[in-house]
Amino acid sequence: MTKIDRMNDNKKGILTAIFRIALITVGGLLMIESVIAYGARSFNLGIIMPFIIGLPLVVLGALYPIITMFFRSCVFGRIIKWCFIAAYAGFCALFAITTATILINSRAPKSSNYDAIIVLGAGTNGREPTLQLRFRLEKAAECFNSSSDAYIIVSGGMGTDESDTEAAVMKNWLTRNGIPSDRVIEEGESSSTEENMLFSKRIIDALVESGKLGAEPTVVFVTSRFHVFRAERLAKRLGVNAEGIASREYKRFLLNDYMRECAAIVQHFVLGKL
Questions:
Q1: Which of these, 236, 233, 230, lies nearest to 257 by C-alpha position?
Q2: Taking residues 153-171, what's their average pLDDT?
Q3: Distance between CA atoms of residues 123 and 165, nearest Å
Q4: Burial class (CB in 10 A: 0-12, 13-18, 19+), 143
Q5: What is the pLDDT of residues 191-211, one digit of tens each?
Q6: How far apart are CA 274 and CA 256, in angstroms?
Q7: In sequence order, which residues have a C-beta less than 8 Å from that of residue 10 and are 6 or more positions away?
Q8: What is the phi/psi pair of residue 220, to 5°?
Q9: CA geometry: angle at 137 spanning 134 and 140, to 5°?
Q10: Cα-flanking dihedrals φ and ψ of residue 239, to 5°?
Q11: CA–CA dist 97, 94 (Å, integer)
Q12: Based on the number of CB atoms within 10 Å of its own CB, is 197 exposed (0-12), middle (13-18) or buried (19 or more)?
């Protein structure tokens, strides 16, 4: 072996070591993200996705010589290799596209004077809203205070691990923070974004029929930024003429939220709901 060959081997060995460390580091951080989120939030797809994505990276980094030997040893190994690469490349592309779409579409509404404000639920801690839900309620209160005579429709049913409906918890928080009780209407039956919009539309239609709202009320809904795009598309599909308003986001778990939303957008697109 010549000196140049040895230098090339050393260089290749260093690059391989760096690559393995990068795989283990990235994969490990994703897995830690899932574990921390699992201990702090209600279980959902966004919590386990980083773990599912991170675990194979850690295994590949730790067992790199053995796995790469398998990849090179047979046709089946090469197929597995390219399926692995395609899966991660595909996910990265989808995540980038959906995230860009979310950010581009989370614009401010044209009007600042609203007739009805729908607040979409985001979980509760006993009889108190989660931090993410509180951010939505704060934004709803801000919108209410900028409007002359709006109704706030708080939309959210009761989950299996909740003692009250999200709607009841939201109304209680709003009234404690200065919003008149008679301006807050509970919608406590929904269990999905689609139902949030559908059941809230029934309330708005009833307000229009009773004369409490005009024939063409200005309606907005408040939700987290990552959720605005999909919720707005679902609203239009159900005949709800409403623009989305983004609340503050829970930055600690942005990765979980955007990963879950990526999966939801892809699912709704495949099912023809967007």
A1: 230
A2: 87
A3: 9
A4: buried
A5: 899 999 999 999 999 999 999
A6: 22
A7: none
A8: -130, 160
A9: 155
A10: 85, 20
A11: 5
A12: buried
* Region label for 95, one of left (φ > 0), alpha (ψ between -120 and 50) or beta (otherwise): alpha
**Scanning the structure block, which residue is given the tokens 């283990």?**
24
- In this structure, are strands 151-155 and 116-120 parallel, antiparallel, or unpaired? parallel
| Under 8 Å between Cβ of 223 and 136 | yes
User: What is the SS3 assignment for the chain?
Assistant: CCHHHHHHHHHHHHHHHHHHHHHHHHHHHHHHHHHHHHHHCCCCHHHHHHHHHHHHHHHHHHCHHHHHHHHHHCHHHHHHHHHHHHHHHHHHHHHHHHHHHHHHHCCCCCCCCCCEEEEECCCEECCEECHHHHHHHHHHHHHHHCCCCCEEEEECCCCCCCCCCHHHHHHHHHHHCCCCHHHEEEECCCCCHHHHHHHHHHHHHHHHHCCCCCCCCCEEEEEEHHHHHHHHHHHHHCCCCEEEEEECCCHHHHHHHHHHHHHHHHHHHHCCCC
- pLDDT, the chain, mean: 88
Give the integer Cα–Cα distance in Å for 53 and 18.
20
> Beta partners for 224?
247
List the domains of the chain with CATH numbers.
3-105 (no CATH), 116-270 (3.40.50.620)
CA angle 142, 167, 181 (to 5 degrees): 60
Q: Is pLDDT at 5 greater than 60 in this prediction? A: no
The yes-or-no verdict on residue 1 having pLDDT over 60 is no
